[in-house]
Write a structure and sequence with these properties.
heterodimer, A: 328 residues, alpha+beta, 4-stranded mixed beta sheet, B: 154 residues, two-stranded antiparallel ribbon, 4 helices, 63% helix, binds iron/sulfur cluster
Chain lengths: 328, 154
């Protein structure tokens, strides 16, 4: 496969989706239509050896997505039981950019690690990884979180009630809550819900228009590239093999659509980075939905087993009834 | 139409499904129910989801077993009461939408977000209606599912 076809430099993004090289100049609608032809999920590659922590991506994300940010009105309704349900209000702290918040969907995690006698400064852009079988979307009881066919995992801010289950079940606890906005205000604000959950939506609207996500476009170092997952993985493995680098995200949580490449092992990075609320780690993550996947077989077989058992039992009953015997 | 053991198992299955289903909403922690000693597991979304799957399989087995027996043998002897019919239809809707939830959670399946929302809302809605219907039947003197029993057990 040629470099061009890998479609992984940001300029080649659209080419990677099978669009001609002049695609950038096409009207947005045509670009989007062409992009839609790729039935593979979109995946990003983040080459951590390149990131200089300039923060351009963080600013671009905030700027471009500002219209989507929560606009709560105070005072917020009292939520019961007050001892347990806490207000999570970021509206007065919108400038915070060293962690994930409802107003900051991307931040740079910076750290220094010793590896093979060398000190490496590693900067890691952190945001939602867009899991392929996302537990936040699967387990949302309210259908507010969902995964699009193009691999983007989104939380619908019109529907989300802010129960924060998505944050609990996300292995990296990515989504962040803002109290005082959303549908819960119109239902039973005192008794259920607590706002809306926010996280990176991979600039879905820009992708639909055939544009690149803002953070990718803004990066002066070309840290991120985006394209169909198989091509991104191929490129990631090529680079990892060539440079003895390490990969994170290919297998994590059953596979994500965010692949990190690092010159140092991720266990070292995971130990070194600051972790806590809104500050995810980089530990190995098992597939959260693996057991459900296995149990689905039982659910699939059960009705047929029930039908078979019913037929056998009914046959016995009819036979004994025909024979005039009681049957208990 | 069934043995007392089967009926008891069915009731327990429904109880566990209702409990673990409700536990999918973040309410047991909020309302301190998971703080009651022995009930902490109710706040574990993954655990309660797996239990919901397991007993979902048990429920589907029992429901299809009953349905087939009723169609093949029971219809001659019994008639569904109207409240029984309503509950049977609701069970069908809850089980059907529940099966769709299991399918949508498979790795290889991606439904579009609107379909997912529809599945989740209907599953929750039918389950709540079923709860109301069951309560009604219970408080109006345990309305039976079947009428004109001839005292015969399958
Ligand atoms: S990283 Fe977390 S929030 Fe993002 S898709 Fe995966 S489970 Fe959902
Ligand atoms: S893809 Fe868009 S929403 Fe996500 S971090 Fe980048 S700029 Fe922000
Ligand atoms: S813009 Fe690029 S180099 Fe700058 S912090 Fe973001 S990813 Fe790193």
């Amino acid at each position: 496969m040629t470099d061009k076809k890998n479609g992984i430099s940001r300029r080649n993004f659209l080419k990677g989706l099978g669009v001609a090289s002049g695609a950038m100049l096409l009207p947005a609608r045509e670009v989007a239509a062409a992009a839609g032809k790729s039935d593979e999920e979109l995946c990003t590659l983040l080459d951590l050896s390149k990131c200089i922590a300039c923060g351009e991506c963080v600013s671009a994300c905030r700027e471009v997505n500002e219209p989507k940010f929560p606009k709560p009105k105070k005072p917020y309704p009292e939520m019961y039981p007050t001892s347990r349900v806490k207000v999570e209000d970021w509206s007065d702290r919108q400038e915070v950019d060293d962690r994930l918040t409802p107003y900051n969907w991307l931040y740079i995690q910076s750290t220094e690690v010793e590896y093979q006698g060398e000190t490496h400064e590693v900067n890691i852009p952190r945001r939602c990884l867009h899991c392929r079988n996302a537990p936040c979307a699967n387990l949302c009881p309210w259908g507010a979180a969902g995964k699009q066919k193009n691999g983007i995992v989104r939380i619908n801010d019109d529907v989300c009630l802010g129960g924060a289950k998505c944050r609990t079940v996300c292995p990296w606890h990515i989504p962040q809550r803002q109290t005082g906005v959303g549908l819960y205000l119109r239902l039973m604000p005192n008794l259920a819900g607590n706002g809306v959950m926010y996280k990176c939506d991979r600039c879905y609207n820009r992708i639909d228009e055939g544009k690149l996500p803002a953070c990718i476009e803004a990066c002066p170092e070309n840290v991120q590239t985006i394209g169909p997952r198989s091509e991104i993985l191929k490129k990631a493995h090529e680079l990892a093999e060539k440079n003895n680098w390490f990969i994170y995200g290919e297998e994590e949580n059953g596979g994500t659509n965010t692949v990190y490449l690092s010159p140092v092992p991720f266990e070292l990075l995971n130990k070194a980075v600051e972790k806590g609320p809104g500050k995810p780690g980089l530990s190995p993550v098992e597939d959260s939905m693996a057991d459900e996947e296995k149990l689905a077989y039982a659910v699939g077989i059960a009705p047929f087993a029930g039908i078979a058992a019913g037929v056998i039992k009914a046959g016995k009953f009819l036979a004994s009834a025909a024979g005039g015997k009681d049957n208990d | 139409m069934t043995s007392p053991l089967f009926a008891r198992l069915f009731k327990w299955t429904i109880f566990i499904m209702a409990l673990t289903g409700a536990a999918q909403m973040p309410i047991f922690k909020r309302y301190y129910i998971a703080d009651i000693p022995g009930l902490g597991w109710l706040a574990d979304f993954y655990l309660t989801n797996k239990i919901h799957y397991i007993f979902g399989a048990v429920l589907m087995f029992m429901a299809l077993y009953l349905l087939i027996m009723f169609i093949l043998a029971g219809k001659k002897y019994f008639r569904l009461s109207s409240s029984g019919l309503l509950r049977v239809v609701l069970y069908g809707a809850v089980i059907g939408t529940g099966a769709l939830r299991v399918i949508k959670n498979l790795h290889s399946v991606t439904f579009d977000p609107f379909t997912v929302m529809l599945i989740d809302w209907t599953h929750l809605g039918f389950a709540m209606l079923l709860g109301v219907a069951a309560m009604y039947a219970f408080f109006r003197g345990r309305k039976p599912y079947l009428e004109k029993g001839v005292g015969m057990r399958l």
